[in-house]
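Ops channel
N.P.: pipeline sanity check, posting one input/output pair.
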C-alpha cells in the first residue's frame, strides 16, 4: 500500500514545482492535505465540525473519530454534508485512504470508497489517479481477489510505470507473487519507467553535473566542486512534497550506511529556511541541506520541475545515474552500485 498523499497526486510519486503550492493544482493540494491527516486535530464522533471553515483533512479527521467510535450514523452525516462542499471524488478517495490506515485496515470499505470516487470522475480522467488504482490492487489482493487486483494494478502501471518500484516489494501484493501476468506487467512497466527516466533527465549520463555554490540551512557555504574526487548523490526535494518526505528516511539511512564512501547532498526548493531546518531536525537528516538560489535546482529538474529527483555523480563530476520520483532504499543501492562500477570508483 502507498500513502494517501501519494495515491492522490496526479503523477505520483512526484510533485511539480509549477503546480504544487504555486498554481495550487487541486490534486496536488489534496495530496498535501491528506499527507497531514495523521497530524490533524483528532475530532471525536461527538464533536461538532464547522464545515464552512473545515478543510478536507478536518473532515477526514472527524470521519476517523466517528468510524473509530462505531458511529455509522455520524459518519454518514459527515459524508453527506462534506459532499456538498468538496469534489465528491476527492472526498471518497480520501475516505478510501482512511479505511486503509493501519489502525483500521478495512479493505472492503476502502475499495468501496475508491470505487465510489472513481464513479464521480469522468472515465477519460480516471487514469489521472494511478495511486488510487494501486491501493485498490493491494486491497483486492488482501481480500483474496487476484483477478481484480491484477486489473487495478495494470491500470495503475499503465498510467504511472514508476509504481512498479512499489509493486515489486509490496507485501500487500503477496497474493500475486508467482503470477505470470504480474511478472510480465512489472517488466513492461520498469522498461517504460527507465525510458521515461532518461527522457526526463535534464543532465544526461556522461554529461558534467552543473556546478553550484549554495548556503545550507545553518549558513555554511558549499560548492559542488569542493567534492571533486568523491562520488556525490544529490537529492532535490521540498518539505511540502509528500513523495519527497516519503523517501527521506531511506535517504537518511543510505547516507548513514555509506558515510565516507559517497557525499550525500540535498537542495531544498522551499521558500522558508526555518521550515526546512525544523523538518530536517524532526526527520534526523544527517547530510547537508542546501537552500536553492532559484537557479541551481532548475539546472537539474528541468522544464518538468518534478521532484524529488536524485542524481548520482562520479568523482570526476560526471553524471552516471538518476532517480526520477521517490524511490526506496533498494533503488538507491542499485544506482550506487552502477555509479561505483561506472568508472572504477
Amino acid at each position: 500500500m502507498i500513502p494517501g498523499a501519494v495515491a492522490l497526486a496526479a503523477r505520483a510519486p512526484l510533485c511539480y514545482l509549477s503546480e504544487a503550492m504555486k498554481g495550487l493544482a487541486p490534486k496536488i493540494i489534496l495530496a498535501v492535505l491528506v499527507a497531514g491527516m495523521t497530524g490533524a486535530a483528532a475530532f471525536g464522533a461527538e464533536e461538532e465540525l464547522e464545515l464552512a471553515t473545515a478543510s478536507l483533512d478536518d473532515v477526514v479527521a472527524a470521519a476517523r473519530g466517528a468510524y473509530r467510535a462505531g458511529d455509522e450514523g455520524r459518519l454518514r452525516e459527515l459524508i453527506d454534508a462534506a459532499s456538498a462542499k468538496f469534489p465528491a471524488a476527492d472526498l471518497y478517495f480520501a475516505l478510501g485512504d482512511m479505511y486503509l490506515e493501519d489502525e483500521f485496515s478495512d479493505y472492503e470499505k476502502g475499495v468501496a470508497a475508491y470505487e465510489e470516487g472513481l464513479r464521480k470522475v469522468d472515465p477519460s480522467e480516471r487514469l489521472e489517479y494511478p495511486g488510487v488504482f494501486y491501493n485498490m490492487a493491494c486491497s483486492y489482493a488482501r481480500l483474496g481477489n487476484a483477478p481484480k487486483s491484477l486489473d487495478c494494478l495494470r491500470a495503475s502501471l499503465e498510467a504511472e510505470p514508476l509504481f512498479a518500484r512499489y509493486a515489486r516489494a509490496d507485501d500487500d501484493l503477496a497474493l500475486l507473487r508467482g503470477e505470470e501476468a504480474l511478472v510480465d506487467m512489472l517488466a513492461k512497466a520498469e522498461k517504460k519507467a527507465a525510458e521515461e527516466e532518461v527522457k526526463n533527465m535534464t543532465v544526461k549520463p556522461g554529461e558534467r553535473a552543473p556546478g553550484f555554490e549554495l548556503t545550507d540551512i545553518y549558513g555554511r557555504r558549499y560548492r559542488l566542486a569542493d567534492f571533486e574526487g568523491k562520488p556525490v548523490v544529490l537529492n532535490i526535494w521540498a518539505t511540502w512534497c509528500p513523495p519527497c518526505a516519503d523517501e527521506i528516511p531511506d535517504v537518511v539511512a543510505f547516507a548513514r550506511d555509506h558515510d565516507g564512501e559517497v557525499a550525500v547532498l540535498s537542495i531544498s526548493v522551499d521558500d522558508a529556511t526555518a521550515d526546512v531546518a525544523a523538518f530536517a531536525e524532526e526527520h534526523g537528516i544527517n547530510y547537508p541541506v542546501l537552500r536553492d538560489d532559484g537557479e541551481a535546482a532548475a539546472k537539474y529538474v528541468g522544464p518538468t520541475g518534478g521532484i524529488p529527483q536524485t542524481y548520482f555523480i562520479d568523482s570526476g563530476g560526471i553524471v552516471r545515474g538518476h532517480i526520477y520520483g521517490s524511490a526506496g532504499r533498494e533503488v538507491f543501492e542499485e544506482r550506487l552500485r552502477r555509479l561505483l562500477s561506472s568508472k572504477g570508483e
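N.P.: looks fine end to end. The chain has a mean pLDDT of 85.
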